[in-house]
Amino acid sequence: MHTLRKMRLFDYLNYLFLIVFSCLMLYPLLYVFSISVSDGEAVWRQSVKLFPIGFNVEAYEAIARANAVVRAYRNSILYTVLGTSFTLIVCLLAAYPLSEPRFRLRGPISLILGLTLFFSAGLIPTYLTYQSYGLLNTIWVITLPVAFNFWFIILVRANISTIPRELKDAARVDGASDFRILLQIIVPLSKPILATIALFVAVAIWNDFFNPLLYLNNSEKFPLTIMLRRMLIRGATGEVVQGNYADTLQAKAFFRQVKMATVIVTLGPILLVYPFVQKYFVQGTLVGAIKG
Amino acid sequence: MREDVTTGAALVPEIPDPRSRLHDWRGRLEREFRNNWQLYVMILPVLVGFFLFRFYPLYGLQIAFKDYNIVAGVRGSEWVGLENFLKFFEDPFFFRVVKNTVVLGFWTLVISYPLPIVFAVLLNEVKQQHGLFKRVTQSISYLPHFVAVVVIVGLMYDFFSTDGIVNQMAVALTGEKWRILGSSAWFRPLYVGSVVWQGVGWGSIIYLAALTGIPPELYEAAIVDGASRWQRILYVTLPGLLPVISVTLILSVSSIVSVGFERAFLLQQPATYSVSDVIATYVYRRGLIKFDFSYGAAIGFFDSIVAFALVVAANYIVKRTNEDREGLW
Which parts pass through the membrane (chain B) (predicted)? Predict the structure, then answer.
């Protein structure tokens, strides 16, 4: 084992490379944070390169006062919570019957729903169909379709089939209904896989730009991602900064701080929970990869 | 009821009463519902949802073969056969969007596909006694995966702007500013670069998992046999990854024609359409912004057929080239 432990030139270069790589991953995020909390003067003089210079939270106060951003934030939270809940409910309602051997339609239903993994109608037909349902511009178009994902149902079903039969049989002998078995046996024993799915779906909805762009055109309903595009890419100050921001360098720099602060509050929830839930994400991807 | 039927059948065994089978079938159905009605109640909303949101839109796909107008609706619009497809092939932008999609998809595949493998192999070379370093590097590398595409592109607009951080560095190094955003020459590097930044770490997960499956004895045996580090990577690590590599390769080949909408859409500007307008963004602009629904549906349909054909072809090639004749299916 000695040669395996000894550091050689290759190892030093490799470690150096990995450290540089990590810095490349972290630098943009650190830079954004530094801009958002630095002193206004340091920002417009372009002296912030890495760590914050000075400290001020005016940009954060500005977005806390900006109705459009606050509303978008609330919308994003609402969509994420609702969409994730719907997904978990659908997963459980589908996975339990589809894992019960006595359920005769188990095979045909799995086969038919499985087709959705391979075929999708595409952008325009889907849009027209949802339009014909009257779903455009509602919160349902963002939160409901996402819940019907057979992939997640497969994951939950695979997990349920590892629960010992005897548990379910004993409950049935004691007179428990299927609903009760689902709630009191299946759900508690499926917590890890449900948590993994919830995390995936929550991040996907929180970060989703495509569906809100397609289906929402009322600014009252916009989530954060649409707001971010308007501010970061279109340069629209909206209600966030009053007056013409392009007037002075100072105002322009302040708007930049506001944009970066908005990015930070968007990333915030993910960055805060990330260290604690990372292992669920990794497990989830691997379960998916193996089953696929 | 059932007893009567069975007795009857026992009396005249060679002529089965058709009614008896019907009764039997009905009885079984009744029993199935009586025993499992709760399961049916559970799955019913799921079936309704899948029908409404996943299957019924497929019915709307017929507008690709129709001349859709809003008044007549999907069903009432007139059939036009393959006209929409022929129109696409004659479209002056046909060549442009197909070429842009394939070129962008090709470079993304060629650059962003191998990097996670390289990253996983390098991480695998980290000494066992430095487990913490390895774990921290892994965690950091996954992080960009969770950053929204709109945030990444938005930040690129800031970093690469004429007075952004990148140009500040460029001025310090070369003394002149580069025009990066809105420049056709820079679009592809920016696009591929952002895919790489976001995906390298996350993409390596599956390879790292495969690497943990390689028994350490193989490495020890290789060392005893005097294998150098390159030989160990070449003859132990890479063969261990090969099964996973063939699967991920098949799955990613179709990405050549299905360049994602979000990143291209957000990063493109009319000034860069000559390189940045891809099939997905063209479908969106023609179909939804200019209300040419049938045309957009036809282009989308064409794109997904090509993507499907590519997966089948890739699977075929992988099957032919590896020894075990194994592909995805």
Answer: 37-56, 102-122, 142-160, 190-212, 233-257, 293-318
Within 8 A of B136 by CB-CB distance, chain A residues are 22
Nearest CA in chain A to B203: A285
Summarize the confidence of residues B90-119 as an average pLDDT.
91
Predicted local distance difference test score (pLDDT) of residue B116: 94
The model's confidence at residue B3, banded by pLDDT at 50, 70 and 90, is very low
Yes or no, beta carbons of B61 and A121 under 8 Å apart: yes
* Closest-CA distance of chain B to residue A142, Å: 12
Best residue in B43, B205, B206 to probe A by mutation, most A CBs within 10 Å?
A: B43
The answer to whether residues B119 and B28 belong to one domain is no
Looking at beta carbons, which residues of chain B come within 8 Å of A130? 53, 57
Q: Which residue of A has its CA nearest to B120?
A: A18
- Per-residue confidence (pLDDT) for residue B6, from 0 to 100: 44
Q: Which ipTM score applies to this complex?
A: 0.88
Higher-confidence residue of B192 and B183: namely B192
Tell me if A116 and B119 make a contact (CB, 8 A cut-off): no
Q: How far is CA B302 from CA A87, A106, B66, B292, in A?
A: 31, 34, 15, 16
Answer for the pair A38, A257: CB distance below 8 angstroms, yes or no. yes
For chain A, list the domains and their CATH numbers: 1-56 (no CATH), 61-291 (1.10.3720.10)
A218-227 tens-digit pLDDT? 889 999 999 8
d(CA A164, CA A169): 9
Q: Which domain holds residue B51?
A: 2-67
Residue B74 with chain A: CB contacts under 8 Å: 128, 132
Residue A114 contacts B, CB cutoff 8 Å: no
How many structural domains is chain B composed of? 2
> Whose structure tokens read 């063939």?
B246
Decide if A14 and B125 are in contact by the 8 Å CB cutoff. Answer: yes
**Chain A nearest CA to B116, separation (Å):** 12
Residues B143 and B47 in one domain: no
Domain finish residue from B15, B35, B67: B67
Cβ-based contacts of B143 with chain A (< 8 Å)? 25-26, 29, 271, 274
Using the predicted structure, report yes or no on whether residue A150 has a pLDDT greater than 60: yes
Please provide the average confidence, as pLDDT, over all residues in chain A.
Answer: 86
Whether A97 sits inside 8 A of B43 (CB atoms) is yes
Q: Specify whether B202 is located in the same domain as B269.
A: yes
Per residue in A122-132, pLDDT (tens digit) is 889 999 999 99
Per-residue tokens: B32 = 């199935």
The full 3-state SS of chain A, as one line of letters, equals CHHHHCCCHHHHHHHHHHHHHHHHHHHHHHHHHHHHHCCHHHHHCCCCCCCCCCCCCHHHHHHHHCHHHHHHHHHHHHHHHHHHHHHHHHHHHHHHHHHCCCCCCHHHHHHHHHHHHCCCCCHHHHHHHHHHCCCCCCCHHHHCHHHCCHHHHHHHHHHHCCCCHHHHHHHHHCCCCHHHHHHHHHHHHCHHHHHHHHHHHHHHHHHCCHHHHHHCCCHHHCCHHHHHHHHHHCCCCCCCCCCCCCCCHHHHHHHHHHHHHHHHHHHHHHHHHHHHHHHHHHHHHHHHHHHC
Does residue B50 have a pLDDT over 90?
yes
